[in-house]
Every structure is written in C-alpha cells, then in structure tokens.
Amino acid sequence: MAKKKTVKDAEITEEKVKKIKGKKQEEVEEIEEEVNDLDEEEIIESDEDFESEDVDFDEEETEKIEEDEEVEESKSSKKEKKDKKEKDSDKKNESTLSKEMKKVVWPKVSEVVKYTFAVLIFCLVLALFFEGLELLMAVVKGLFV
User: Fold this and answer.
1) Could you tell me the end-to-end alpha-carbon distance of the chain, in angstroms, rounded to an integer?
2) Euclidean distance between CA atoms 21 and 14, whole angstroms
3) CB under 8 Å to 115, separation ≥6 — which residues?
4) Nearest CA to 93 among 104, 85, 82?
C-alpha cells in the first residue's frame, strides 16, 4: 500500500510540475509577443535621432584616446604584477616567520620573575649610586662656597 501511495504522490507532483511549466511557458510567450509587437517605427525613429547627432572626432583625438587606454592597461598590468609579487613575498615572509617562531625558546615563569627582580634591584642600586653622587657633590660644593 505504501508503494501505491508514493507512486500516486509522485504522479500528482509530476502533474503539478507540468502545469506550472506550462503556465511559465505561456507567460514567456506572452512577453515575447509584447516585445515583438513594439512599434517598429519608434525603434527606427530612435535610430535616426542617434545618427543625426554629430559625433565628429579628429584622428588626433581618437589616437589620444587609444594611447590613454593603452597607458591605463599597462598601469593596471604593472599594478597587478606588483600586487602578485607582494603577495608572494608576504607568503614567504609568513612561512619564514612561522619557522623562526618555532625555534624560539620561551622562558619559564620562574625565570621571568627572577629576571624581573634582578632588573628592579639593579635600578634601585643605580638610583642609590646617583643619589650618593649628588649628595657628595652638594657637600663638596658646600665646602667651597
């Protein structure tokens, strides 16, 4: 029974599809008829209007236009080549960078803490040294003044 039902469903959907296709085909034919029914005189008149306009280019102007087009094409091709080179070099740089980053040995947290304290102590020692020099200079200056 299930097979009979699916076969009937398939037949019904095929009929629906055929009806829809037929309607769409009729719509297409109607549009084609409307396009063909356009007044040919209007089309001819518009062509005559276009031909009546004076479009007078000198040979020099056309040569300039052609040269400009060639220059633009050469500029665009040069730019494309430059962009391609930059992309290629970027890819090389990225691969080189990733290789180099894999070689890096990062310090452990304990090492970072140890080096941080070393730098702070060194800065404190230097600050005390220069403060002592300043006091010494002040004492020496006080003796002579």
Assistant:
1) 123
2) 10
3) 107
4) 85
Q: What's the token pair of residue 100?
A: 């180099």
- Rounded to whole angstroms, what are the CA distances from 111 to 101, 104, 116, 117, 125? 20, 15, 8, 10, 21
Burial 134-144 (b: 16+ CB within 10 A, else e): eeeeeeeeeee
Amino acid at 116: T
Residue type, 128: L
What ranges do the domains of the chain cover? Answer: 72-104, 107-145
pTM: 0.34
The three state secondary structure string of 2-69 is HHHHHHHHHHHHHHHHHHHHHHHHHHHHHHHHHHHCCCHHHHHHHHHHHHHCCCCCCHHHHHHHHHHH
Tokens 């003796």 map to which residue?
A: 143
Q: What is the pLDDT of residue 6?
A: 74
Mean pLDDT, consecutive 10-residue segments, the chain of 145 residues?
68 78 80 70 57 58 76 75 74 83 92 97 98 96 87
